[in-house]
């Protein structure tokens, strides 16, 4: 196995970070890959995959809000040949907006804000000082990573409109911490960045994209609707001009200001994919894969069919390894 690829998983609370990780095993199997826990916490990393795969697939439930930093290391094995190891941390989204930790005391709003770090029943009880220290360590981790997996959630942006807030503050801190000899061309941060525009299966997101003529159907497997990877950067640019997606432009500009543009890739992602009709076909009038429940959490309606969940990891691993071998 090559050196581990360290990836900083980044995104606002409820943007879908934990769900993307939870879908990884199903996404990998669909492409003939396998993923297993590895390293000091191999058993814990393996359990995460096993339990979350069942939770989504069998129980139709999304993961619980993340209440503490969870380090995870996995080996990715391709159908043939050598694979690679990924190390990352799944953390509460509130950690990306540290200044609000003290004031954000309404954990009941269901965002997995850092407030929930302190108040999750049965979860760890951390003082503000401990939360601050944990977050400082996390920023150091992000600065030291080779790659970033940034999740942009158009649903949260539509409803709350604060995606940029959860990027810029922590990005500033990360930039401050990256040592000058690691900068590319003297000014850019060294990370490869995979931007995932997620929740493509959400009916409002999908119909908006469809009206913009972005959608097509994949040639393989379930023929899920997709936006081609080659068009994804343009899609994100287009999205930033849509009503209620104000953060997209600021996010893009902040990323381009900090990172080498040739080391940023865009993916249009859905962790759970679209529901299909009884013939196994996609029906544009009936594909919502989430069923709301009046007496509990929403349920996943059909099977999980992840779209562009494995691919950003493969791109990051390839880009990072190419970089370390001296390629541009
Ligand atoms: N439509 C849709 N909703 C999703 C998807 N992934 C996550 N969600 C929703 O977003 C919520 C938060 O997801 P989670 O992974 O916990 O977000 P995190 O806080 O970033 O880890 C879930 O409970 C779902 O309601 C997806 O692929 N499609
Ligand atoms: Mg989470």
- End-to-end separation in angstroms reads 22 Å
Order of helices and strands: EHHEHEEHHEHHEHEEHHEEEH
- The average pLDDT value, as a whole number, equals 90
Record field, number of beta strands: 11
Ligands bound, unique: guanosine-5'-diphosphate, magnesium ion
Q: Would you identify the CATH architecture?
A: 3-Layer(aba) Sandwich
Strand order, sheet with most strands = 2-3-4-1-5-6-9
Percent of residues in β-strands: 15-25%
The protein's oligomeric status is single chain
What is the fourth-level CATH superfamily? Answer: P-loop containing nucleotide triphosphate hydrolases
Helix content: 25-40%
- Based on CA atoms alone, the radius of gyration comes out at 19 Å
Into how many domains do the coordinates divide? Answer: 1
Q: Specify the CATH class.
A: Alpha Beta
Structural class of the secondary elements? alpha/beta
Low-confidence stretches: 102-123
Region (Disordered): 104-128
């Amino acid at each position: 196995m090559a050196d581990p690829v360290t990836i900083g998983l980044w995104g606002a609370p409820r943007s879908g970070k934990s769900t993307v990780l939870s879908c990884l095993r199903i996404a990998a199997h669909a492409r003939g890959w396998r993923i297993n826990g590895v390293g000091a916490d191999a058993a814990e990393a393996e359990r995460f995959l096993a339990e979350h795969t069942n939770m989504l697939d069998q129980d139709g439930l999304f993961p619980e809000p993340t209440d503490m930093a969870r380090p995870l290391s996995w080996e990715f094995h391709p159908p043939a040949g050598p694979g690679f190891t990924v190390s990352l941390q799944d953390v509460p989204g509130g950690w990306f907006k540290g200044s609000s930790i003290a004031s954000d005391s309404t954990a009941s709003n269901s965002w997995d804000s850092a407030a929930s770090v302190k108040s999750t029943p049965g979860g760890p009880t951390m003082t503000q000082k401990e939360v601050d220290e944990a977050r400082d360590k996390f920023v150091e981790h992000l600065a030291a990573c080779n790659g970033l997996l940034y999740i942009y959630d158009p649903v949260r942006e539509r409803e709350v409109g604060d995606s940029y807030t959860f990027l810029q503050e922590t990005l500033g801190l990360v930039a401050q911490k990256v040592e000058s000899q690691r900068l590319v061309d003297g000014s850019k941060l060294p990370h490869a960045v995979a931007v995932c525009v997620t929740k493509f299966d959400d009916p409002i997101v999908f119909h908006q994209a469809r009206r913009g003529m972005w959608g097509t159907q994949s040639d393989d497997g379930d023929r899920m609707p997709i936006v081609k990877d080659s068009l994804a950067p343009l899609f994100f640019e287009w999205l930033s001009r849509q009503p209620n997606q104000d953060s997209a432009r600021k996010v893009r500009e902040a990323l381009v200001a900090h990172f080498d543009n040739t080391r940023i890739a865009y993916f249009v992602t859905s962790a759970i994919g679209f529901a299909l009709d009884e013939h196994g076909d996609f029906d544009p009038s009936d594909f919502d894969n989430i069923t709301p429940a009046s007496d509990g959490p929403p349920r996943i309606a059909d099977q999980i069919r992840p779209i562009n969940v494995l691919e950003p990891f493969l791109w990051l691993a390839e880009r990072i390894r190419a970089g370390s071998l001296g390629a541009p």
